[in-house]
What does this fold into?
Amino acid sequence: MENTQVNYQKRIFTILLLVVIAAIIFLGSDILFPVILAFIFGVLIRPIDAFLQKKWHFPKILSVILTVAIAIVVFAGIIFLLGLQLKDFFSDLPTLEKNMMKVIHDIGDWIAKTFDVSNVKQEKIVKENLMKNRSMFSLESFGTITGALVNFILVPLYLFLFLFYRELLLAFLMKLVPAKSAERMQIVVNDIKVIIRMYILGLLLEIAIVAALTTLGLWIIGVKYALFLGLLVALLNLIPYVGILVANALSCLISLSNNPDIQQSVLGVIAVIGVVQLIDNNILLPRIVGSKVRINALASILCVIVGGSLAGVPGMFLAIPITAIIKVVFDAIPNLEPYGFLLGDELPKKVFWTKKKEVTNKIVKEQIKNPKPDKPETGTGTRQKPKPE
It folds into this structure.
C-alpha cells in the first residue's frame, strides 16, 4: 500500500513538474528564446574555444572573445551574401508589384464568375479586414523589429557568458545529482552535446543541398529569381511540415507574377519543389539529420505548432532540437522514460494488449479456481451466541 502511494506521489510530482515547465516556457518565451538560441550555438562552436585554449594556449577570456567574434563574422558574412542575392530581386519589386496586381485581378474575376461574388464586394471585404487589423499589424511589426534588434544584442552576450561560465554550469549540474548518479549525468550532457552538434551541422548541409537542387530545377524550367527562390525554399524547409507549404505558396506567387503561364509558373514550381522534397525526406533527412535526432512525426508536428504559438517563427525553428534535448533528459530519468519513448520513432514490434472479454473471462476463471472465503456476517441484525457461564 505504501509503495503504491509513493508511486502515485511520484507521478503527480512528474505531471506538476511538466506543467510548471510548460507555464514557464509560455510566460517567458521572449526571454527564453535568445537564451536557448545562444545555448545551442554555444554547444556548436565550443570546439573552436577548446582548440584555441588547448592547442594554442590562449587565455580563457581571449579564447572566448575570439570564438564569439568568429561566430559573428560568419553570421554577418552569410547575411551579406544573401543580401547580394536579393539585390536584383528588390530592384524589380515595382515590376513585380504591377504583375502581382494583374494576377490578383485575374483571380478576382475567376472568383466572381465561379462563386458569383462581384469585384466590388471582394474589394469591400478586403478593405474592411485591412482597416480592422491595421493597428494590430503595425504594433506586431514594430514589436517584431524591436525584438529582433534586442535578440541581435542579447544572443552574442549570452553566447559569451555560456562559454565563459561553462565549468560553473557543468559543476552546478553535477551538484544537482548524488555522487552515484554523476556518471549518468555526464552521459546525458554528452548526449545533448552530440545531438545539438549533429543536428545543426546536418541542417546546414541539408540547407546547402536543398538550395542547390531547387535552384537548379527552377533554372532548368526557366523561372526567374531561381537562386532567390532556392534559398527561400531551403530556409523555410527548416520549419517542419509548415515551412514547405509557405515556400510553395510564395514561390508560385513570385513565379506567377513574372510569367502568366500557369503551367510553367505554378505547376512547374510545384513539380520541382515536390521532387526536391522527395529527395530530402527519403535520402537527406534520414541520413544527414535524422541519424541522431529521432522524433516521430506526430510529436514533431505538435512541437512545431506549440513552438510557433509560444515564440512565433523562431519557436518553430527551435522546436525540433529542443524536443530532442527533452527526449534525452526523459530517457535518462526512470520516471520520465515513458514520455521519452512517446517522443521517439521506435515502434514496438508487437503490443500484448488483451481484449476486455478475454480479461473478464480470465478473472472469472481465477475466481472459480480460487474462491475467496465467505466473510462472517456482522451487523445489528446478527445475534451472537451467548458465552457459556
